[in-house]
């Protein structure tokens, strides 16, 4: 078995696991209590906040812990919509966003809001000028993903953020795929809100974070007591927050992830050697996540390839919606020919991927396609 789906989720790092353990056992206190085990829990939460803030070059007070990237996205979209509805009901996003953005926006559209979906080019890149031209007097938020989860294309976030600041419009970016893979500096970049998903950076599933720039106030998504400075009610998930903090420390240590880029590029080179013009690279060859390789096997069905190769664990698109056999909406928005898009597989390498695993995968695919070609030749004789 070769796991090549790190964009879907990552295994929990051993140091991250060890950071959790005390708070699953003896240090079980509630951070809101002021006796010793409560104080210990509170200190762990604040330590985790500092660690996440350091990774993003933000202030600790600007970090709110959530249960997931999806919750962070919903908090921003619905919070801005409710808090600033008197200023306007128009939002802007791209055609290739994750469902964690598109579905909340669909919900808002059903409730009287208007959304403009800007296109992308053949590499999956948003043109900042399209965003600028879409901004209206009643626009209250622009949300553009930091990088695409399927093809890995990095968006011109800094330029879009500058445009939004000039136009006095809030800017949010879902950086679930980018955090820990590429450097993010929130001191320099004029981003108002940024989403973090813990399980993408070797922390457990069930924890995330939301950066809210100092001075911005939005209505909470979850109401109750005043945890997280009143931004999110619910007793803090101390073990997972400690885990996310440690994952942030490890992520900073591994930046800029040249090792991921090297093994990804090695993988692509081996595929090119074996299959040459029978494969097509989807996305931006240069400006993309260092771990992501989305290739189409022309004339084949990507889902069928993976089904017939159970020892290769990869994806035909976003892991959150892989049950469909139609082509990826992302590739469709990029204008990829349907016959090419149908053969797409997203491979995403990670911290534990080895060259030996890449060689094994290429060998398995070579055997598979050799067998397929022999069968097809026999059927057509």
TrEMBL record:
Domain of life: Bacteria
Enzyme Commission number, as recorded: 2.8.1.7
Catalytic activity: (sulfur carrier)-H + L-cysteine = (sulfur carrier)-SH + L-alanine
Keywords on record: Iron, Iron-sulfur, Metal-binding, Pyridoxal phosphate, Transferase
Sequence ranges assigned to domain Aminotransferase class V in this UniProt record: 2-359
MF (Gene Ontology): cysteine desulfurase activity; iron-sulfur cluster binding; metal ion binding
EC primary class: transferase
Cofactor(s) of this protein: pyridoxal 5'-phosphate
InterPro entries cross-referenced by the UniProt entry: Aminotrans_V_dom, Aminotrans_V_PyrdxlP_BS, Cysteine_dSase, PyrdxlP-dep_Trfase, PyrdxlP-dep_Trfase_major, PyrdxlP-dep_Trfase_small
PROSITE patterns: AA_TRANSFER_CLASS_5
Pfam short name (any one): Aminotran_5
Aminoacyl-tRNA synthetase listed as a keyword: no
Family, per entry: Belongs to the class-V pyridoxal-phosphate-dependent aminotransferase family. NifS/IscS subfamily.
Protein name: cysteine desulfurase
Organism: Tetragenococcus halophilus (Pediococcus halophilus)
